[in-house]
Amino acid sequence: MAHALDLPVAEMARRVRDPRDPLTARVLVDESLRRIEALDGRVKAFLHVAPDLARAQAGAVDAAVTAGRDPGPLAGVPLAVKDNLEVAGLPLTCASRMLAGYVAPRDATAVARAVAAGCCVVGKANLDEFAMGSSTENSAFGPTRNPHDLARVPGGSSGGSAAAVAARMVPLALGSDTGGSIRQPAALTGLVGFKPSYGRVSRSGLVAFASSLDQVGPLARSVEDAALLFRAMRGHDALDATTRRDVEAACPLPSLAGLRVGRVAELELGERPDAGTAAALARARAALAGAGAHEVELSIPLAGAAGLPIYYIVAPAEASSNLARFDGIRYGLRVPGEGLEGLYAATRGQGFGAEVQRRILVGTFVLSAGYADAYYKRAMAARQALAAALEQAFTQADVLLTATTPTPAFRLGEKASDPLAMYLCDALTVPANLAGVPAISLPAGVDAQGLPIGLQLWARAGADEALLAAAAAVERLLATPSPLPALAREVGA
User: Fold this and answer.
1) Whole-model pTM?
2) d(CA 108, CA 117)
3) Active-site residue numbers?
4) pLDDT at 247
5) CB neighbourhood size of 445 (10 A)
6) Which of 124, 143, 410, 420 might form a disulfide with 83, Cβ 3.0–4.6 angstroms?
């Protein structure tokens, strides 16, 4: 019989909140830690496991239940946190040698709100260094492996968070999404991954990659589970001036009859699509049509071939600025060198990995005198035009439907030597970040090799609850729940 850790999150938390039920937060946390110990030596989802913190938080939840207080809607639910988000008293490395030995002094706002809702943090999850990558192979501490096939990547940069949920080590995880880094690993591991509208969830306590693109969000096994964690975290934060003050009311689940589903020509899979991904997308469109949804043909040229070039100018430019503080003097690792220039070069040369250095160099170049007008300013103008085009598209369609990734999970090392091939993995996700709109990836079955496939829905900026409601309806229609890896059966999932 499956453990209570495998229940829907709402049911899990409801049972913990019931003082008559023998299920406690401590029971859930202990089971999560047992699974991590049994499986993570092969998956490598975690950089740091925190049994003392998790058990202390579980104790606080159980004490509240005993005292007759409500510990929150996520009472006792174990949570993995991507290691670019602060958790007080735990290491914060961003999977980089640059931050080795650093311990966070406080909780990120998103983490604090999740804990206040009852979550128990069991550990910090692996990622591409400073969230720069699409495979979680760029971690200074080694790659994470996809629980569905240990020879393949889990996606990135939130690959550790995704792998932890997919392997059933935790029911929920936090990730960050700069160009698809929640949705892409969700698709490759068979999960739901939700990127909220920009400003819906505070970035305070998130180590910045590209500040105008980054967004914190959940990875989960269902839309309902993801929505519960999102609602616990969302809202204005005085520590983040970009957070929105308005909070959209929860929406009832819509009827799919009459839903306008946009099909964007520039976000199709191309002339030689992956067969499994194309088939899953076709099945979803047919099912929606059968349920009464109306397909709307759209063209958004800037969302196609221009999306990645815009992103890979804007994101590296912001990264070069954000990471300038890690210089061996103010923050991070210090490697001795000859003079100030030598110290700076040695520290950044040894502290940052190849992909981070590559993006810093690109970002510094596009911001440099003589080139900022030609590259950065033109990219920002194109970004604004893309956002306006998407806003116009949502006057014709309620949601947009695309594949999340061009292909299922690829093999470890397959794209490591070809940065451009790796960047293409995010071609279908980056436009949502550039425009600040919410987007969610849903499981859409598996291909002939048993590898998960994800489909993606987008909505207008600020319509997070409407998107979650539509995604839940589509999830029920497709009836393709998060697939269970064979590896997870070893621990009774």
Assistant:
1) 0.97
2) 14
3) 82, 157, 181
4) 67
5) 19
6) 124
